[in-house]
Amino acid sequence: MKNPITFILVIALLAPYKKAQSQGFKSANEHTRSSIDSLIEAKMSKTGIVGMSAAIIVNNKLAWIKGFGYADREKRTPFTPKTIMNIASITKTFTGVCLMQAVEDKKVSLDEDINTYLPFKVVNPNFPDEKITLRHLATHTSGLVDRHPFYGDSTQFYGGEKPEDLGSFISNYFLPEGKYYSKDNFLQSKPGTYRAYSNVGAGLAGYIVELRTGEKLSEYAKKHIFKPLKMYNSGWSLSDIDINKHTKLYSKQGDKVEPIPLYESTTYPDGGMRTSVAELSNFFSCLLNDGKYQKVSLLNEKSARELTRFQFTEQNKPENVKLNGLNSGIFWATKMGGTRIGHNGSDPGVRTFMLADLTKEVAVIFFSNTSLNENEEGLFFDIYDDLYNYGNMLKNSK
């Protein structure tokens, strides 16, 4: 047995050193936090971003979260992690979870002809005998495409004007007698053979989920996603959320950053969700953990893995996809040259990121309430990189 007096003396001599080590680590950590704040604030100031918030998730746990700037520039209302805003195409990941829940409940199959579920027929006139499936819709390989500029101009409604009914829009877009029908709504490619990002395809998938579950996505998600994950301030329309907690939106034109009215979308399954960075963190942690969050399971393990599984292989991939740069889950994809997984979003006054590395160890969410000029878009990716690098630092300091 060691001499207890000697042991006590050694501990006494080491104590100041241990304390200094602890203080040094704390000081370094505080310096790093200060540095990430400075990096973000400098980029916001340089470009005119009015407000933003971000969160970093490390090994499925929230490691850092903060807001910057203003939700309302004129009233100087701070943009916080609890500030609500529309999240643009990150919405598709919620549509994907609703879809996989409907698969679990045997309401739909990913590989059944979608016309089995619809009250009208959706047929690509270039390939009338080829079936289109929900898997095609969810991987953007259906051959159904957004016709620009019609699609964007005709699907967003500003200043409280109510959007057209989703089912009415879908039928008018795809039926030959519909007022929005055009052969340009379809690709000259068989379903499954060519990947073309399709918002209207996501709208159609969401519409099928509504038909098969008998509920609007807003009500379905409230029961099966928002309530279990304690996302009490999230919703699929302005009427679903507390408008006083919603940020104003801003758009930069030239050198001026001006407010723009809030808006809603006809094809809301592709981009209409509204939530906060704080609440979206719960959802993303769940997806990164095979559908589990704390004591809640949104999906069983098989469904959760199907949601995030890379759907394309060398033997089964669209002709225009190179697997080292792009792959797809169910409304979920690789980004940034195949180095990240998740989803981004972009709409007027909105830029959003929800991306993790391929190991799912470090994940970043961030919202900006300001859309920038096209030549400044890269700055959002710079901010993402700053946050991701800080996340790696937090992971390695554990």
Describe this structure in words.
The chain has a domain at 86-342: DD-peptidase/beta-lactamase superfamily (Beta-lactamase). It contains 10 helices and 16 strands. It has 398 residues and is α+β, with helices and mostly antiparallel strands. The protein starts with a helix and ends with a helix. Helix 1 (4-47) packs antiparallel against helix 10 (378-396), helix 2 runs parallel beside helix 6 and helix 2 (91-104) runs antiparallel to helix 9 (301-308). It has a 7-stranded antiparallel sheet with strand order 3-2-1-15-14-13-12, sandwiched between helices. InterPro entries: AmpC-like, Beta-lactam-related, Beta-lactam/transpept-like. This is CubicO group peptidase, beta-lactamase class C family. Residues 36-373 form the Beta-lactamase-related domain. It holds the Pfam family Beta-lactamase.
Strand order of the largest sheet: 3-2-1-15-14-13-12
Secondary-structure element series: HEEEEHHHEHHHEEEEHEEHEEEEEH
Based on CA atoms alone, the radius of gyration comes out at: 23 Å
Count helical runs. Answer: 10
For the biggest sheet, the summary is: 7 strands, antiparallel
**Mass-distribution shape:** globular
How much helix, percentage-wise, in residues?
25-40%
| Structural class by sheet pairing and helices | alpha+beta
Whole-number mean pLDDT: 91
CATH architectural type of the domain at 86-342: 3-Layer(aba) Sandwich
